[in-house]
């Protein structure tokens, strides 16, 4: 196959792979990149092979200008929209170039545009799919560069092909469905013919493509390039202490987690539809480290919200002025605990609280031996934070560990001890004013929730006569209201809320309870919290994440944005606890967790069913995690911990004693003491000085003796070594002797000359000047033997090896005679 055709296919494949990388980065907006991929392959047939559509350079420039103007207005949007606009512009320009007749200029432009597409794709998405796509892209790029080099060299030595190439730039303005294949006709002599590049490889390079040697070489280059890239990537020191590659490139658009210190009922649906990775959670036994599996989905607490604003449909933390914040303490005795290790997605930015960076965790949480001292516990709100505030833009830690109680079953699993003392006046105001407040209308005269209040009253009225008579009143009311939503209220869980709204003049929570009865978890949590407050039961909305996807390869739970959840906590005093709970264990009361969302009834975590698809998904998720940890988030701290420190511990530490001053001093003291010499601790010691000079004298003598022996024996050792391990350069060294002899006679090889060109020039000069005729034949044979050894990998016959010396002697005699004649 012709070089030009291979190059056209390779460039089209490179353009297609660049467009596919953009498609991966844009996600749901991948229609245009996929169209560009189809256009790349289509252009090979309709433009390069058939010549049906070929754009002139002027027309192509005009189309590119229109593409720039068309993309200009997209640059006024947000930052991510600017990247999308750049991606679109690159695709437009690429399509214009693909349908031009291919010249060196067009090939270069297509290659540069494809590289820019990779850069933009990296800024949009740095997932493992992007990394896997880089492998075929790199292989195609190296192949394209090799083909381009061969093609360009073919143009340089083939004048007809060069003339055809130059004629392409002067084509008519536009050629469309000419019906004439570019391979037909005399492209050089017929100026009206459809011009195409039809160059073939020179004869001496024909076997490169027929035998596949070039592609094998490309595979070798790709392998060694990949190895060098990996070594350089991990060994080159990073200078940003907190930054990571993914934060500045991929997935690093500053994505927030689903929750801040306030949440809006209108946003939760969009949050829950996101499949973005948030954190990896591994639960293990405290002592043995054995993986702990939960039968039901764990709750990873974020923050608690107390105040609802009807105008903005928003919950916020509240106006409590004093919180009880303390460092994480070790767990108290008398309970079962589990070790909770959480690794966060560094390309996602966790929100900040008043205490620091918000951390998600099962609650209550305690310190282990590996828990950072910067982690603090807001015991009033039940919020875990990272208090270290050295840098304004500091992100959440890459990994943190906490000890949490292990209560997966029963009533105790939903009881959270309150750790803020009840005798605190500010806290009691928070409980019995903020957490029982029912929002009023804009005139502060009537409640916004008449239907909700009536429903709550009906449920309370039915509670004493029910089966929960033995439970304390507050617990019975709370659980009765929870069951109403989850079991017998005919409520439906849905992320699409707005189409179900029936009365926009009502508050959305009231409309949800009374009318459409369809909503996501925040609607259910908001309704239950306000219903409890109408009965003077303190209640707050809690947001965080629930459950996760268990990975059988990594033995961890992958928590994603789609696991975002909201639930309710109501406060119980020690005498209001459920039956069977010891009041002495809860002197400050407790919080009862209630989850009224129907889709969130206790259900098993997603486990792999053992099918091929599930196994592949678990494997891919595990690979993506490794990619995120060791490529995207490879910052200075991780590099030091995972690469530099292990290398130092294994390679450097065993030799630390050889450079340790104290150990050497101890060795010398003990050695001298064994000889009866005792050194003092003074800065200067006469005995030590004499001993040091004697040691230096011995070292000098040893060095001189060794150098003398080496000088005497080195020529013999070198000959012996060359005999045992002959190399191409040694076996072909006679040529350099020949070149040295000729230089003494006035013939010096230029930097641009090959060895054969130099010898041919010397032979021609000898014949022209009629000198050194007897050395012409020996030089011809010597240069032939040199090429056979140096580039052919051959070994000369013994007769030829013997003849080398005779030929060199003949050349030496002739050059000496020439020098004598000049004098």
UniProtKB/TrEMBL annotation:
Keywords: Membrane, Transmembrane, Transmembrane helix. It holds the Pfam family Transglut_core. SUPFAM superfamilies: Cysteine proteinases. The keyword Cell inner membrane does not apply. Gene3D superfamilies: 3.10.620.30. It comes from the Bacteria. The chain crosses the membrane at residues 7-24, 30-47, 59-76, 82-99, 106-124, 130-151, 218-236, 683-710. Residues 513-598 form the Transglutaminase-like domain. This is Transglutaminase-like domain-containing protein.
């Amino acid at each position: 196959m012709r070089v030009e055709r291979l190059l056209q296919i390779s460039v089209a494949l490179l353009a297609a792979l660049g467009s596919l990388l953009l498609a991966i980065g844009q996600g749901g907006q991948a229609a245009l990149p996929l169209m560009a991929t189809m256009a790349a392959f289509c252009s090979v047939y309709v433009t390069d092979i058939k010549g049906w559509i070929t754009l002139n350079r002027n027309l192509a420039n005009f189309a590119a200008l229109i593409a720039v103007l068309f993309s200009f207005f997209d640059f006024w949007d947000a930052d991510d929209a600017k990247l999308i606009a750049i991606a679109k512009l690159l695709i437009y320009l690429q399509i214009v170039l693909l349908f031009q007749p291919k010249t060196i200029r067009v090939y270069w432009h297509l290659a540069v545009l494809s590289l820019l597409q990779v850069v933009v794709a990296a800024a949009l998405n740095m997932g493992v799919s992007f990394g896997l796509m880089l492998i075929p892209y790199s292989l195609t790029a190296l192949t394209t560069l090799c083909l381009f080099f061969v093609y360009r060299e073919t143009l340089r030595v083939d004048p007809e092909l060069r003339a055809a190439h130059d004629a392409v730039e002067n084509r008519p303005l536009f050629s469309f469905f000419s019906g004439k294949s570019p391979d037909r006709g005399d492209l050089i002599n017929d100026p009206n013919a459809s011009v195409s590049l039809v160059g073939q490889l020179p004869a001496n390079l024909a076997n490169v493509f027929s035998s596949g040697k070039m592609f094998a070489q490309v595979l070798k280059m790709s392998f060694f390039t990949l190895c060098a890239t990996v070594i350089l990537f991990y060994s080159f020191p990073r200078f940003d202490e907190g930054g990571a590659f993914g934060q500045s490139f991929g997935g690093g658009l500053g994505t927030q987690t689903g929750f801040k210190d306030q949440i809006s009922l209108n946003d939760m649906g969009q949050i829950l539809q996101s499949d973005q990775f948030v954190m990896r959670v591994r639960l293990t036994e405290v002592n043995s480290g054995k993986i702990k599996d939960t039968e039901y989905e764990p709750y990873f607490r974020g923050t608690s919200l107390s105040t609802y604003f009807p105008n903005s449909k928003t919950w916020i933390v509240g106006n409590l002025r004093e919180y009880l914040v303390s460092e994480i303490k070790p767990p108290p005795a008398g309970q079962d605990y589990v070790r909770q290790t959480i690794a966060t997605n560094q390309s996602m930015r966790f929100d900040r609280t008043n205490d620091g960076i918000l951390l998600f965790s099962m609650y209550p949480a305690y310190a282990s031996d590996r828990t950072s001292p910067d982690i603090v516990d807001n015991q009033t709100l039940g919020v875990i934070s990272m208090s270290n505030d050295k840098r304004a833009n500091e992100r959440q830690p890459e990994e943190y560990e906490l000890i949490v109680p292990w209560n997966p079953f029963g009533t105790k699993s939903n009881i959270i001890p309150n750790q803020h003392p009840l005798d605190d006046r500010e806290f009691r105001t928070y409980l019995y004013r903020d957490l029982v407040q029912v929002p009023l209308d804009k005139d502060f005269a009537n409640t916004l929730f008449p239907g909700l209040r009536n429903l709550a009253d009906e449920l309370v009225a039915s509670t004493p006569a029910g089966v929960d008579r033995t439970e304390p009143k507050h617990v019975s009311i709370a659980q009765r209201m929870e069951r109403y939503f989850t079991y017998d209220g005919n409520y439906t869980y849905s992320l699409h809320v707005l189409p179900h709204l029936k009365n926009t003049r009502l508050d959305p929570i009231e409309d949800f309870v009374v009318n459409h009865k369809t909503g996501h978890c925040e609607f259910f949590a908001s309704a239950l919290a306000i219903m409890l407050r109408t009965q003077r039961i303190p209640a707050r909305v809690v947001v965080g994440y629930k459950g996760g996807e268990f990975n059988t390869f990594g033995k961890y739970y992958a928590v994603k944005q789609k696991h975002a959840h909201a639930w309710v906590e109501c406060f119980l005093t020690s005498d209001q606890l459920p039956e069977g709970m010891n009041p002495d264990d809860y002197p400050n009361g407790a919080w009862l967790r209630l989850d009224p969302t129907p889709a969130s009834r206790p259900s098993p975590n997603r486990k792999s069913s053992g099918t091929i698809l599930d196994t592949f998904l678990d494997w891919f998720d595990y690979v993506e995690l490794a990619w995120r940890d060791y490529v995207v988030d490879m910052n200075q701290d991780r590099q030091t911990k995972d690469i530099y420190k292990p290398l130092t511990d294994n390679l450097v530490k065993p030799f630390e004693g050889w450079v340790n001053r104290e150990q050497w001093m101890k060795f010398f003291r003990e050695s001298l003491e064994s000889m009866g010499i005792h050194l003092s601790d003074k800065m200067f010691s006469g005995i030590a000085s004499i001993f040091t000079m004697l040691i230096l004298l011995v070292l000098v003598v040893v060095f001189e003796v060794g150098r003398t022996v080496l000088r005497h024996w080195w020529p013999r050792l070198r000959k012996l070594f060359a005999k045992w391990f002959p190399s191409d350069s040694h076996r072909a060294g006679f040529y350099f002797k020949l070149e040295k002899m000729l230089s003494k006679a006035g013939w010096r090889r230029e930097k641009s000359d090959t060895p054969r060109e130099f010898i041919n020039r010397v032979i021609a000069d000898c014949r022209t000047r009629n000198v050194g005729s007897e050395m012409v034949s020996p030089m011809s044979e010597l240069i032939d033997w040199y090429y056979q050894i140096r580039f052919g990998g051959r070994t000369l016959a013994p007769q030829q090896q013997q003849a080398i010396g005779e030929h060199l002697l003949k050349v030496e005699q002739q050059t000496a005679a020439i020098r004598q004649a000049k004098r």
